[in-house]
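Input:
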Amino acid sequence: DARVTQTPRHKVTEMGQEVTMRCQPILGHNTVFWYRQTMMQGLELLAYFRNRAPLDDSGMPKDRFSAEMPDATLATLKIQPSEPRDSAVYFCASVGPEAFFGQGTRLTVV
Amino acid sequence: GQNIDQPTEMTATEGAIVQINCTYQTSGFNGLFWYQQHAGEAPTFLSYNVLDGLEEKGRFSSFLSRSKGYSYLLLKELQMKDSASYLCAVRGSNYQLIWGAGTKLIIKP
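Output:
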């Protein structure tokens, strides 16, 4: 859904580099989810926030992934250092009464 | 534990009707969502049910029975473009979304 903005749409990077993905949720929505999806798997929850506070980030590899929500208009997901197995599409979902997805960031780590 | 079950794959004929079922067992219930996802694209919101009954939206309808832990998505007048995966998700306690694995719907002429 176009109202949830994710950037960049595509990212190709070399192994070991830092990757930052951004999500602008829908104004007024107070819950934001980060998901990862590969060809072989369904939606894998990485982390989610409610009212900007992290509620669950147990799905993230803590040594390399971090998720933050510095303000109500921005959620970020960082990978440092990136590895080829991180290659996937990363979605954020903005949730109020209903839930909408951004278009995703297609990450390729070579 | 928490789980959501959907059929893995279904096949239907263009112009026909298909019903995709979803059963759930979750700790807490704060609504059920249905999404459509075409290959390589983001999931698109279809419907949201929080009360029992049928919600109709054009060719798509969604039904919920909270006492049975059951929902279905009904697609009428099937078109080739309806070929996609259909995802059922439940908002449980602590606002988390719990997802089914999705049902791949194949439409044949």
